[in-house]
Amino acid sequence: MNGFENFFSGVQQGLFEAVVQPVMFALGLGNLLEDAYEATAWFMAGAIQIVILLAVIGPLQRWRPVEPVTDRATIRTDILYTLIHRLGLFRIALFFTLEPVFDSFFGMVRTAGFGTFHLDQLWPGVTDQALVSLLIYLVVFDFVAYWTHRGQHQLEWWWRLHSLHHAQRQMTMWSDNRNHLLDDIIADIIVVLVAQLIGVAPGQFIAIVALTQLSESFQHANIRLWFGRIGERLWVSPRFHRLHHSIGIGHESHGPTTLGGHNFGVLLPWWDMLFGTANFQLRYDPTGIRDQVEKQRDYGRGFWSQQWLGLKRLIGRD
């Protein structure tokens, strides 16, 4: 673990000094070098994910696809979402908009005498074990993500935004980041608040986000794969998550008019098992939303049309 961290830091330092730093000085942004150094780490983590998608998950999709690819245009839009999020463009936008607000808020909190709390310090000796500390934070973030995900499905106003993610009828490894930007902002605010409250280190936070995103990309892949009776209960598989996207199953409870559904776990199916939302049926159904089939509702095909229609749904105009 320490060896990988050292290697990653060395590459980050080299990329920053050779490329990022000169560009920042040329643009007159020398006062933001510290933030640019962190942004370099986010870019590298995203680039590594893209390479794994292309080199590993892509061939797996071609090996055992659930369904043939018939709509490449909508997949190209999903690729755009992935590049925007994984290569840091979305985080750059947040940096110039929301991060100053967070810095001001947490600065006031610390000025008021509330110091930084580190969750992993509750276990003596864990702070000296990077992997154990990482796993502790991973479980906590996944627990929060489960409830965030349930909120996206069970709160009517939030579902109007999140439904864009479920409107993809041709689900692939690129579909994870297909979200309304406002939906992403809300989810990111929750994650940042939790990260500050439990004191996760920046490097660990990047590693947790990268691991989560890569696993989510695999879960959305067009691949007929499950982890077996035991494995399905240890980590979310493509089969487990595909059922969450299935028409009339994944995001409905007690009939087509009641929001809810099954399989909200992001990494760990434990929370679904604990709170009664798990569905372990071995099936691969078509994905999408019931009203796309029954009412021919339009969720948009291109990036901007999807964002615009999402806003209209939010205010009840669509």
Description:
The chain is mainly α and 318 residues long. It has one domain. The mean pLDDT is 90.
Overall spatial form:
globular
How many DSSP helices?
14
- How many domains make up the coordinates? 1
Structural class: mainly alpha
Give a brief rundown of this model.
This protein has 318 residues and is mainly alpha-helical. It contains 14 helices and no strands.
What's the topology here?
Elements lengths: L1 H25 L6 H31 L8 H15 L2 H9 L1 H13 L18 H25 L1 H11 L14 H18 L3 H18 L8 H4 L6 H8 L24 H6 L14 H5 L8 H12 L4
Helix pairs in contact: 1-2, 2-9, 6-7, 6-8, 6-9, 7-14
Distinctive features:
318 residues
